[in-house]
Design a protein that fits this description.
12-stranded antiparallel beta barrel; 1 helix; about 65% strand; mainly beta; about 325 residues; single chain
Length: about 325
């Protein structure tokens, strides 16, 4: 199946899942009760007043894609292996408002395999731009069937070859307990919608050394997530995220040419197993994400399409609440 067709089918599935997960709980055939307990590995977690939340992540990812010139056969294969390290901290100003941020570092090996010239390989390592966020619980599930969060994010452009960016996200959460013959199962259902903006910036092609000027770019996404808590120590997180970049233009400085990057979409399902080392204080999670990335067409000075794009991500997360 062509990758664009696959992304279309999966995106429709993700949107249907999101609608299903955010339907009123009264439509379910379970005898359930609300659960407003804060679980640190839960997608709806927000630190309470005076609390710190920490998430430390190690990730390993592999990425693949092929280049096909317009009217020609595939003549380039790109792959990348990356180790990344991410630290996030949040602090509860009140029980409903928190601020925080995160920073990350990555070392990456990129390989370009051509049909018309020798293979090239590049190793890079750098700290990425930090991101700062503020989250407010506008509606609490204590007074409502659901809770609603609003989050604003800002990334300053202080690291070379990366843009300044920002975004706004809206979360809808429902947390419940389902009685069973063995006790109770906890369940959180979350729907999210958001938008992002990357400012114009300039970077340098690592292969050719040519300077490239990127225009600004908008994007948006929707997501459906959940956590199932089987015991006080064991839980499973899963979900799917559909995102779309709306395209931009790239100018080749010094050459006087430019090309347009068409919009492209990504569908990313994920699953994680969570273990409570100290329940609700210290949690450890093992996560796998797979990104089905849509084709990315270029037109202008560069004519062709990146096809067969995908990325697999393996993560270990340590959650702390103190």
């Amino acid at each position: 199946m062509h990758s664009a067709d696959l992304v279309t089918k999966l995106s429709r599935t993700g949107l249907m899942l999101g609608i299903a997960l955010t339907c009123p709980i009264s439509a379910w055939a379970f005898d359930v009760t609300s659960d407003t307990t804060p679980y640190i590995s839960d997608p709806s977690f927000l630190p309470r007043q005076g609390e710190f939340y920490s998430e430390t992540t190690y990730g390993y990812s592999t990425r693949e894609q092929n280049w096909q010139p317009n009217g020609g056969a595939i003549n380039e294969h790109y792959s990348a292996d990356s180790n990344s390290y991410r630290q996030q901290i949040e602090y509860g100003i009140t029980d409903r408002f928190s601020v925080g941020g995160y920073g990350s570092y990555a070392d990456t090996t990129q390989q370009y395999v051509y049909t018309f010239r020798p293979t090239s390989e590049i190793d890079t390592n750098q700290f990425n731009n930090p991101t700062f966020n503020a989250t407010y619980r506008a509606i609490d599930q204590i007074q409502s069937p659901v809770s609603v969060y609003v989050e604003a994010l800002f990334t300053p452009g202080i690291v070379a070859n990366a843009p300044r960016s920002g975004g706004v996200d809206l979360y809808l959460n429902r947390e419940i307990r389902i009685p069973t013959s063995q006790g109770q199962i906890g369940l959180t259902i979350q729907g999210e919608i958001g938008t992002s903006y990357d400012d114009a910036y300039t970077n340098t092609d690592p292969l050719t050394g040519v300077s490239r000027d990127y225009t600004d770019e908008w994007g948006w996404f929707v997501a459906a997530r959940n956590q199932v808590r089987f015991t006080p120590r064991w839980a499973v997180n899963s979900g799917i995220v559909y995102s779309k970049d709306l395209g931009n233009s790239i100018g080749l400085a010094g050459i006087g040419d430019s090309y347009v990057v068409a919009p492209s979409a990504t569908v990313a399902p994920y699953v994680a197993v969570v273990f409570g080392i100290v329940p609700n204080r210290v949690n450890l999670a093992f996560e796998y994400d797979h990104e089905f990335i849509g084709d990315s067409a270029r037109s202008g000075a560069v004519n062709g399409t990146w096809t067969d794009r995908s990325q697999s991500i393996y993560e270990v997360d340590l959650f702390l609440r103190f």
